[in-house]
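Lab notebook, entry 397. We have the chain sequence and a SMILES string for pyridoxal-5'-phosphate, and the next step in the workflow is to get a structural model of the bound complex before anyone spends time on docking refinements. Request logged below.

Task: model protein plus pyridoxal-5'-phosphate, output structure tokens.
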Amino acid sequence: MSSSEDKRLSKPRQKETVLATAGRDTKAQKGFVNPPVVHGSTVLYPTADDLHAHRGEYQYGRRGTPTTKALQEAMMALEGAQCAGVGIAPSGLAAITTTLLAVLKAGDHLLVCDNAYRPTRNFCNGVLARYGVETTYFDPLIGSGIGQLFKANTRAVLVEAPGSQSFEMPDIPVIASVAQARGALVIDDNTWATPLFHRSLDQGVDISIQAATKYIGGHSDIMFGTISANAKAWPMVADAIQLLGVCAGPDDVFLAIRGLRTLAVRLAQHYRSGLEIARWLGKRPEVNRVLHPALETDPGHAIWKRDFTGASGLFSVVLNPATQDAVDALLNSLELFGMGYSWGGFESLIIPFDCASYRTATQWQPGGPSLRLHVGLENVEDLKTDLARGFAAFNAA
Ligand SMILES: *Cc1c(COP(=O)(O)O)cnc(C)c1O
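Result returned:
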């Protein structure tokens, strides 16, 4: 064998291959390609000795099953070498709240980027405040300036890149290096890119969260969340999951595994179609600005290019000033873009949004009505036709 063939045989597997292969113990699955969907609470111990010693691969349904093990192994492989463990939660929001409860205690200070998912803020301002944790919000574009916001008791920094409405792109490696120097943990809500396009744990993040409801599930049919942690953070996360009793239903776990198997092909298409629609929208006279970090003109483009290997199908546009009636006429005339919350499924979605009411560290003054689009897997020319119909109704209103 030549040395180049030798090298090829030992090359690490690429992400697409990892998605198709990881977490599959075909022997334990008795030859079936997919893991069993284990509905179970009680696990029987064969002898009293085993019972006393809690001996056995599984002890109790809440603590793990062959189904959850398959998902955890697949996610760990996707996250890369820094990942020491993956926790499972019944929703993306539960993954975030479990993580915050895992790492914080009364008297701690938390830094949260101002473009974070709104229910994350509600948890900080509600539950965490009630339990004696203080939150300070920061400009997502703060960069190394975040050092000035640290206090002696700052325990963690939460980032979201990009924000899932306004799409500012924080500099995660810079924020992470400042946090690390100050002894604080970094939590990243990585739902937009998924670990396929952005490996947070390789960039100094300690805990990377997925609202797997979105792209990992990919079919708008589950609520699910995952918490991927490095060796430093995993013991805290694992502990909180046990203490809080966090777990998820086996059918949803199975659907998350099934979603992972096709994540690479789906995201490649969302990326391609999303960017094409974003460019098309950028040329429309009704559109003032497109907020999409993969566009060369976007303020976050350089960071996106450096830290990400792709983009998903979610982005926003700011329209030129218009009446509410005109925006509603646009929304009501669309046939393919549905109006509804969430994203990451196969279908296209659109919602109006306004961050102004809840931002505290930055001001949201886009200069016109804002719409967030999720570009799904429909034919991209059909989607343009649908949006052109929307603009005709917008202009007629
Ligand atoms: C949807 C979403 C969540 C919450 O996920 P759920 O599964 O709906 O609870 C968290 N973060 C981001 C960025 C999201 O888009």
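Notes for the group: The chain has two domains: 18-261, 264-396. Worth checking against the assay data. The longest helix spans residues 263-282.
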